[in-house]
Design goal:
single chain, 619 residues, Rossmann fold, Rna Polymerase Sigma Factor, Chain: A, ten-stranded mixed β-sheet, 23 helices
């Protein structure tokens, strides 16, 4: 290997893929049928005809032969296939064909990833990996795999796309384009052999080039963190991240000064095809970017995204695509920003029994203000907006939709189940009053907006987003302000928790950078196809009931009687008086949600009741 200064691989891979192996198997069977029947020429011709469909691209065949014809016995493509089949049968020895075909399918660089990397570590040449996106025989994902493994062993390498309609035969049929590409890759210049890395002293530093979609608050945070941590990234992980291109909606908008000098485009799809981009970092958000993310994964280009709106609706499909193409899809920033919960769930060695999480910093900040300063909901929202913790339109947060999107992502990783947000039971905090926080505290509880999921008997899973009462000793009850937390109950390791800021430019940027580090270390997430199911109903639990009514000395007695008629009991009670109304808080014995809703429906019998609210109680 040390004799070679520069190595170019074209439409090659570390291994054959399953589709190509299946095609070659059928070719060999056709030839063997010919040997058995004595018509070897026909067997060889048919094998070659099948092969021609894999050597050439679909676009070329469609351009040349995709015309309507009434003669289905001899469509335009038939003469082309017959010519190549007969020519091959006349010229190529049968035994040689079978041996070569089997040799391709037996070719492996190693029995496992460790063996592959041990072999590639011997390569001291600069490697230029060239692939054709339309190649059916050795698809572009195989070239991307080769490129990633070369990077993993510290090789000097680059990945190039040859856009050609000729598929696998592009290196023969599109030589002008290939020559231009090789010149751009500086293949024909002088190259010095790279010194062999012996594993001692300084590690070789490799560069990962980033194409970033979006350069707003979070994008600016990513640029800032990449600049701040550049030296540490080299020292700790022997990797240098460089943003080579940015896609934005409005190129005239004022951006972070660190974006100056980086080429900008308004067409995000260009980043997918750009050979100067190794990984897509998507921090713009929104469903409109689904085609870009899909195209990147299909093309074998890794994606790091913070787009919870997209993932909450399409993660099942995108995850399966990423798994099928072997392309990393990382989304830590979409779940809980600075909390590395996706990383933990993806690489855990334990089974998760239940998950409870505060994943919306806006609502948690508002509840903290209502709890500590007795602010009405509207004033608490305004304060959150003034401090940048709430959007101008905070409805997605207040209604629980943001937390539901994150719960869908977390449930996929924790339980291997896909539950879209619209299948979840979701309640927000819009019905809460400061009095609820007071009453809950008087009875030894705190109110938090919780996203939770738990395994149930028979393989079911309960999952919901709702404000609940937590005992004041509960871990999540102590989470205040804009902070997030995740609390897991695990089968073997018991209780685990993560705590940190769940929003903001730099906390979100740390999640993005963490994903990039995982990518650099080939420690990316797998996305097995999830089970799809409807969540099971919540099991019986205690409930909090607040009744707001005109001052009425007999109200407590009447409500207690009504509760008993429903087969339940009052276990705790607190009141808060105001000039014109009294707020009564009750903790009711265990029942299902339907029972408590029916009880609330009968509260009109008590008279002078102005408003009611019920919430679940976590034990």
């Amino acid at each position: 290997p040390e004799r070679c200064a520069r190595l170019v691989t074209i439409s090659a891979g570390l291994r054959p893929d399953g589709w190509g192996t299946a095609t070659r198997h059928l070719q060999r069977e056709l030839v063997k049928d010919g040997l058995r029947t004595g018509d070897v020429a026909t067997g060889m011709a048919r094998a070659r005809q099948l092969g021609m469909l894999t050597y050439r691209g679909r676009d070329e065949l469609d351009t040349r032969f995709g015309v309507l014809t009434n003669d289905l016995a001899h469509p335009p493509v038939a003469a082309y296939l017959e010519h190549h089949g007969q020519r091959f049968a006349q010229r190529f020895p049968v035994r040689t064909f079978l041996l070569l075909s089997e040799a391709i399918d037996r070719c492996r660089f190693g029995i496992d990833r460790e063996a592959v990397r041990e072999a590639l570590a011997r390569v001291t040449a600069e490697v230029v990996v060239v692939g054709v996106p339309g190649d059916l025989l050795f698809p572009y994902a195989l070239q991307h795999e080769l490129y990633r493994e070369l990077q993993a062993v510290g090789a000097t390498c680059s990945l190039w796309k040859l856009d050609s309609e000729f598929g696998h035969d592009a290196f023969l049929a599109d030589q002008d384009k290939l020559a231009v590409l090789l010149r751009e890759a500086s293949v024909f210049g002088q190259a010095q052999p790279r010194a062999r890395f012996e594993g001692l002293g300084a590690r070789p530093v490799r560069e990962i080039r980033i194409g970033m979609i979006g350069c707003g608050v979070v994008g600016g945070g990513v640029l800032e963190l990449l600049a701040r941590q550049a030296t540490d990234m080299v020292d700790r992980y022997a990797v240098r991240f460089r943003v080579t291109r940015i896609a934005v909606r409005d190129p005239a908008k004022v951006r972070n000064p660190l974006a100056a000098g980086i080429p900008i485009t308004t067409n995000a799809v260009e980043l997918v095809a750009d050979p100067e981009v190794d990984v897509i970092v998507e921090v713009a958000g929104g469903m409109a970017l689904e085609p870009v993310v899909t195209a990147a994964l299909a093309a074998g280009k890794p994606v790091v995204t913070a787009n919870k709106a997209l993932l909450a609706r399409k993660l099942a499909e995108l995850g399966v695509l990423a798994q099928r193409t072997g392309t990393p899809l990382l989304c830590e920033a979409a779940a809980a920003a600075a909390l590395p919960i996706i990383r933990h769930l993806s690489h855990r060695a334990d089974e998760i029994d239940s998950l409870m999480a505060i994943v919306n910093g806006t609502c948690n900040y508002i509840l903290t203000r209502m709890e500590q300063d007795e602010l009405p909901l509207e004033r608490a929202i305004a304060e959150a907006q003034a401090k940048g913790f709430a959007e101008a339109d905070p409805s997605a947060d207040l209604l629980g939709h943001d937390a539901a999107a994150k719960l869908s992502i977390l449930a996929y990783r924790a339980f291997g189940v896909w539950i879209p947000p619209d299948a979840l039971s979701v309640r927000g905090i819009g019905e809460l009053w400061p009095a609820d926080c007071d009453l809950a505290e008087a009875m030894g509880f705190k109110i938090r907006l919780i996203a939770h999921a738990a395994r149930r008997a028979g393989g079911g899973l309960s999952a919901a987003v709702e404000p609940v009462l937590l005992p004041d000793w509960h871990l999540l009850a102590s989470v205040e302000e804009e902070y997030n937390a995740v609390y897991l109950k695990c089968a073997a390791s018991g209780d685990l928790s993560l705590f940190g800021k769940g929003a903001g430019a730099l906390p979100t940027a740390t999640a993005v950078l963490g994903d990039l580090i995982d990518l650099a270390q080939d420690n990316s997430v797998q996305w097995p196809e999830p089970r799809r199911l409807e969540p099971t109903p919540q099991p019986a639990r205690r409930h909090y009931l607040r009744v707001t009514a005109e001052p009425h000395p007999g109200l407590h007695r009447k409500l207690d009687s009504l509760v008993r008629r429903c087969g339940l009991s009052v276990q705790n009670h607190a009141t808060r008086g105001e000039p014109t109304v009294t707020h009564h808080g009750f903790v009711i014995s265990a029942s299902d949600d339907a029972q408590i809703a029916a009880l609330v429906g009968q509260l009109g019998e008590l008279g002078r009741v102005e408003q009611t609210l019920w919430l679940g109680v976590v034990e």
